[in-house]
Amino acid sequence: MPDHLRRRLRRPRSGRLEAGGASALAPRTVEVRQSGFVAEPHGRAPDLDWARWGRPERREHLSAALVELLQQALGLRGPAPAVVEAADVQVPASRLTPPAHHDLAAVVGAVHVKDDPAARLSRAAGRSTADLLGMRAGTLDGVPDAVVLPGSHDEVQRLLTVCTAHRIAVVPFGGGTSVVGGVAARAGEHAAVVALDVRRLGALVSLDRESGLATLQTGLRAPEAEALLGVEGFTLGHFPQSYEYASLGGFAATRSAGQASSGYGRFDEMVVALRVATPAGSLRVGRVVASAAGPDLRQLFLGSEGALGVITELTLRVRPEPEVVVDEAWAFADFAAGVAALRKLAVAGEPVTVTRLSDEAETWVNSQLAPASPGAPAAAHGAEGCRAVIAHEGPADLVEARGRLVAALLQRAGGRRLAQPRAGEWRAVRFRAPYLRDALLDAGVFVETLETAGSWSQLARLRDGVTTAVVGALTTAGRPPVIMCHVSHVYRTGASLYFTVVCRIGPRPREAWAAAKRAAGDAIIAAGGTITHHHGVGTEHLPWMAAEVGPLGLDVLRAVKTTLDPAGILNPGKLIPPLD
Amino acid sequence: MPDHLRRRLRRPRSGRLEAGGASALAPRTVEVRQSGFVAEPHGRAPDLDWARWGRPERREHLSAALVELLQQALGLRGPAPAVVEAADVQVPASRLTPPAHHDLAAVVGAVHVKDDPAARLSRAAGRSTADLLGMRAGTLDGVPDAVVLPGSHDEVQRLLTVCTAHRIAVVPFGGGTSVVGGVAARAGEHAAVVALDVRRLGALVSLDRESGLATLQTGLRAPEAEALLGVEGFTLGHFPQSYEYASLGGFAATRSAGQASSGYGRFDEMVVALRVATPAGSLRVGRVVASAAGPDLRQLFLGSEGALGVITELTLRVRPEPEVVVDEAWAFADFAAGVAALRKLAVAGEPVTVTRLSDEAETWVNSQLAPASPGAPAAAHGAEGCRAVIAHEGPADLVEARGRLVAALLQRAGGRRLAQPRAGEWRAVRFRAPYLRDALLDAGVFVETLETAGSWSQLARLRDGVTTAVVGALTTAGRPPVIMCHVSHVYRTGASLYFTVVCRIGPRPREAWAAAKRAAGDAIIAAGGTITHHHGVGTEHLPWMAAEVGPLGLDVLRAVKTTLDPAGILNPGKLIPPLD
Fold first, then answer.
1. The Cα angle at residue B425 between residues B424 and B428, in degrees rounded to 5
2. Three-class SS of residue B278?
3. C-alpha distances in angstroms, B30 versus B36, B48, B56, B220, B247?
4. Average pLDDT of B569-578?
């Protein structure tokens, strides 16, 4: 085997909970208990911190030089405001009535109905930059009146009956990593709102080794699911940036796409069957991987964002853990050349696990942030062209053969393969961005992302349209931004575009960003893109749902909602715009 | 290039209408006119004959020896009944009222509202064996009161308004190849029923070469679509057995899967966007290949079988015409060994265009039916084990590399590659089966197919269950059958099973088959399979829809139907079972 193939560090058979191949993650040792078909992690991954992404020991610290550079480039003035800690936030009194509390407790047990301020605050918001700014300022759009933690599908089903009877809105809550307002605590027209936290639904229910099918409960965080599957020699292969905290239920409810989507597929493609609790009753949809028995009802619950039901179990296509993992770094003259090469690769249909191309700006920033490599002096902006990451995973012989075919194809398309030290950089920092955002916010720098997808022929126009819109809006708001873009999900007919926007926080940053987001959304629709390729709708993308699916499409969604949730208690104000 | 790679006979650039690489099809020369983005075939493929599959010149004739063999094996007695010709069928008077006729004609023009017996008979039924037996006997379950042929999406939309006003049921009609009763002329509770034939919707509306996206009207027959795309150097790659006559609209409405589904995907996977006319108005669903903007509404119309709307346009993922096509024949010791090898191939994820495995019985029958090869004496039943077809299509270098990897994998799994003459046999006869069925019916032999899919771990049980059920039912009905089975669609987690059942026609054959089908359907559900993998629901599979999607799933489908078709005029009695 050529030495550019390196064996993957296999996860230990004892079922320790570690992120799949992510050396940047501190190992967490969570023993896995197995009894019959049901396996549960003994301990569980921690919750998100207040007003921040990850745990304190993983926080990023910016160098003084970088802070100075940012201050100059973005016109920062003065220190960022201090963070209001959770204990200092004014939390309104719970609106949950004693009879409602009693009935909820009768389903899940009193210990699993939490209405103390700390529990309610921890389930009040997701992790968009606007959410973080709200938390940092101690001002939240809403706080749930209680957090309810069911322990089984049947308890979820009974909770929905209780909440319907008491006119309580229900926000299904997984990892809490939504960046589109998906878990915002909105009561709508109801008397109160509870967060229905699926955390306790944390079992591997069954595993069909021959078919490569695992049935998992939806409260499992992604690393927990990988640990349970890793013990059995399988992986899901789903590694979005939210990987450390996001839940399987959230992946399904938002049609998540991971960094390895080129090889493992989008999350929605992995779902063979779902079990869903709705106020109208329970369903199991999906019998086998492909069927012609009418409309595919799985596709109504995938992307349903808690507005049509609570997904409690997923039967997922899983893969054998890869024998080898190979990361390659490639350079292209510019973004257009890189996109053209990726298109050729996609059309050829040769399997690739990760396909990721940064534009000139992101390439330069990444090289500034990367640990200094010996003999690799920092290049000037644009001098390096554009970088791409190509990764292959699988059996050694196939990975080697595919690597050769893909390399030949990329070389013919003008690509240049970079030396090995560069190749590992991406994997080492792949889950680092949310920690960096916290550090940047501490330094007074606003950073947020947005994403879309379009066909190959639309992509340049889509990128230009979004860039112009965001630069215009933020410049008008007195904070000219730096914008970076990358392609991270590639299809035969098109690709995603993911934008990272950086500017000074300045006064009223949430309003400034909302204006930029409005301009970007309009530009996306005008250029024929989708308003979201993998973040979901939530509250953020609601204004474009009519453009996305049309008025009659909305009527169809409303009819489905009315059938499953006649009282409209499920996640009001998300996904489906109200009738005018 | 090794000599086992043979260049595909490319379709001529002048746009002649020929089947994609199917040498068995007589070439039809249909000139293609192009104006701007809209291309239409000048002439059009012919309609299906009365009570038969194809055109007279393609009819199959059984040898005297084969007929004698069949007579002995199946216990045939006496000649088959003569076929009642269309002109001799008693057709009931049309129930279309003069005002209704007037209003329909006002939309499409009088010439496109046909209520003569010949036109009505030609749109009365699909092509299941039960349909053919009904036609042959001159007894049909129903005949449409008229055939209406709209020329545009807007005309379809206006027709639905007229039909709603006049209480006329509408059966959307494409190629008429349904084998599940999907186009049966049922008025339901309505005053009359018309066949809405999309035949005139026959244009290539637009082609985005860079993105590989073609927008095509749904009345195009598959060979017509291939001819239009072939002029531009593209192919859809969708080759089901109904290829010669089936329409694009039918493929979408029934979730068709073609013989090359392993490489090109199922038809539902090719659909990026649809345009649909419904009584409640028109929709366009699908903006780009993948989106997280809520539930995927495309998946409601894919598989909707004309019950939720009339699909008038499809934006489809198309591929460059393959540079080379390689067919390989493989042998395995038995069906279980072949299935195990296909599973390994699917899990490895190496691209293959066609993956097809016949069981012992089908292998033997195919070798009896194949043109005699020099030096290949007929083997005894079972002596050849099981045959598989593996085909690769694409750029020469990739096809060669993939061929080597796949061959190594199949050899390790116990496969033995057969000499070249065997390899081409399948492609030469790939669309022959429906012609053979006609010849067998002429000889008094009943032949019908049914299909399902399941996960790899279910497959043996699924096959046994169906076989036992069908043999039991037909033996009870006094006609012990021969059953053959093949796998033709392979996924990482499972595969399809396709059964061909042969017995004597005997008395009341439709009733005998209905009993066998009931037993098979129950066995499929009991074994965890899907009631249909690629034929659709129609009337035939209606009894199992509740088992397939659950009672609440049916409520969801009914709610969608009520929203889009409040009067219930669209294809009544199909897809969605009536409320008890």
1. 85
2. strand
3. 19, 18, 19, 13, 17
4. 97
Q: What is the 3-state secondary structure (H, E, C) of B380-398?
A: CCCCCCEEEEEEEEECHHH
**Does the beta carbon of B270 lie under 8 angstroms from any beta carbon of chain A?**
no
Tokens of A144: 């749930």
Give SS3 for A494. strand
In chain B, residues with a C-beta closer than 8 Å to the C-beta of A284 are 550
Minimum CA–CA partner of B531 in chain A = A293
pTM (two decimals): 0.93
Ramachandran area for residue A536 (φ above 0: left; ψ -120 to 50: alpha; else beta): left
In A521-540, the residues whose Cβ lies within 8 Å of chain B are: 528-537
For chain A, residues with pLDDT lower than 70 are: 1-38, 42-43, 371-382, 420-423
Angstrom distance (rounded) from CA B194 to CA B196: 6
- Residues found in chain B: 580
Band of residue B29 on the pLDDT scale cut at 50, 70, 90: very low
**How many Cβ atoms are within 10 Å of A566's Cβ, its own excluded?**
12
Residue A234, helix vs strand vs coil: strand
Angle formed by the axes of helices A545-564 and B545-564, nearest 10°: 120
| Amino acid letter for position B47 | D
Query: Which residues on A lie below 8 Å from B489 (Cβ)?
Result: 290
pLDDT digits (tens, 9 = 90+) for B404-443: 999 999 999 999 999 866 667 788 888 999 999 999 999 9
For A128, the 3-state DSSP assignment is: coil
ipTM above threshold 0.90: yes
Q: Residues B117, B138: contact at Cβ < 8 Å?
A: no
CB contact under 8 A, A212 and B408: no
B/e letters for A248-285, b = 16+ CB within 10 Å, e = fewer, are bbbbbbbbbbbbbbbbbbbbbbbbbbbbbbbbbbbbbb
Which chain A residues are Cβ-neighbours of B526 within 8 angstroms?
A: none
* Residue B343, min C-alpha distance to chain A (Å): 8
Residue B511, pLDDT above cutoff 80: yes
List b or e across A437-464, with b for residues whose CB sees 16 or more CB atoms inside 10 angstroms: bbbbbbbbbbbbbbbbbbbbbbbeebbe
> What would the pLDDT profile of A481-493 be if each residue is shown by its tens digit?
999 999 999 999 9
Binning pLDDT at 50, 70 and 90, where does residue B6 land?
very low
pLDDT at position B2 over 90:
no
3-class secondary-structure state, position B60: coil
Q: What's the CA dihedral at A33, A38, A41, A44 to 10 degrees?
A: -150
Say how many CB pairs under 8 Å bridge A and B: 296
Collect all residues of chain A within an 8 Å Cβ-Cβ radius of residue B299: 295-296, 298-300
Q: 3-state class of A356 per DSSP?
A: strand
